[in-house]
Design brief:
340 residues; alpha/beta; Nucleotidyltransferase, domain 5; 2 domains; 5-stranded mixed sheet; 11 helices; 18% strand; globular
Length: 340
């Protein structure tokens, strides 16, 4: 079983070849030029996908040492994401499907993240808890099988990655600010300043980070009206990171304990944060829970996770279920499409 997968939901153009659940290639082309704008510009992202998608797909096949004629199916991300970016990937995949008479499997980007831990760790036991954290999403899931999961909670406003980036802008850091905050926090005091932990004791698994952003803005205006001194930057970064990580870890561990699972998967771009990884791993261990720490290429948007879950869908439903090319892309998030 060989599957060519394509991912283009935001600002990474990615392609991967999956063969019997093994990753033969996982090519990712990131659009770093967005940093000068302080965020992703949708139209520019779409144009960049158009310019690179053919080369990325070709490289994925070459590295996998496979020809397109050896593929059994095409998989492509269709939701959620930037409409223009999704259209580029979807239409390219449909073109390959028509030309080579291959079934095409539409995949939800967040479902790819949900199962990404299974790519590198075959010992993961179902059911498990998955925390998906990125610039656009923060949500907790109970994953029961490759076709069944439940949303336990999600952000009621901003995603954790969005909070990192917007607070980073306030601090004068380049976009995306998450990695830079992580780096600076290593030399800072996480208890230097106290920022709010939104919904920490809400009694549910929802998240909120808009209050943290507001608090940091007022703090900077009041405490440092002339600008944040360089020698205080690391302490502020560490304190902000502590506030975000405290909430993410507590709710993830609480959910893992409540549902008596053996594994906790943390996925999405924010899962690369070193403080989040260590804190979650240390606290989960006390409860007898193993945290699956993903390789960097599986944290960011990638096509391997799309191909992996597409293979499961194909095995479950058969190729005849994926002959329809009339499917459309969708920008909406999983919050609007909760699967029970």
């Amino acid at each position: 079983m060989n599957i060519l997968a394509i991912e283009s939901s935001c600002d990474e153009t990615a392609a991967s070849v999956i063969s019997n659940s093994r990753v033969l290639s996982n090519i990712i082309s990131s659009q770093h030029f967005h940093s000068k704008y302080g965020g992703v510009i949708p139209e520019l992202a779409s144009r960049a996908h158009l310019a690179s998608i053919s080369l990325v797909v070709r490289e994925a096949l070459t590295k996998a040492e496979k020809n397109i004629e050896e593929m059994n199916a095409i998989a492509v991300t269709t939701e959620p994401g930037l409409i223009g970016s999704l259209i580029v990937g979807s239409n390219f995949a449909k073109g390959l499907s028509i030309k080579y008479n291959l079934p095409i499997i539409p995949v939800n980007h967040l479902e790819g993240h949900l199962y990404s831990g299974n790519i590198q760790d075959e010992t993961i036991v179902l059911p498990y808890i998955a925390l998906v954290v990125s610039g656009g999403h923060t949500a907790l899931f109970k994953v029961e099988s490759y076709s069944k999961y439940k949303v336990l909670g999600s952000t009621v406003d901003d995603a954790s990655g969005e909070a990192f980036d917007k607070i980073g802008t306030m601090l004068g850091l380049p976009y995306p600010a998450g990695p830079e905050i992580d780096k600076l926090a290593k030399t800072g005091n996480p208890r230097a300043y106290v920022f709010p932990r939104g919904m920490l004791h809400s009694g549910n698994y929802n998240f909120s980070f808009s209050g943290l952003k507001t608090s940091v803005r007022y703090f900077l205006e009041k405490q440092f009206p002339q600008g944040l001194p360089e020698d205080k930057l690391s302490d502020v970064c560490a304190s902000v990171q502590e506030a975000i990580v405290d909430v993410l870890v507590k709710k993830s561990i609480d959910a893992s304990v409540e549902y008596n699972v053996k594994h906790l998967i943390i996925a999405g771009g924010v899962s690369a944060n070193s403080c989040l990884r260590k804190r979650a791993t240390d606290l989960a261990k006390l409860q007898g829970i193993k945290v699956v720490v993903l390789n960097p290429d599986y944290c960011i948007d990638n096509a391997a996770m799309i191909g992996f879950i597409a293979e499961k869908r194909l095995l479950e439903n058969g190729p005849d279920a994926y002959q329809d090319l009339t499917f459309k892309v969708n920008a909406s998030s999983l919050r609007a499409k909760r699967k029970k």
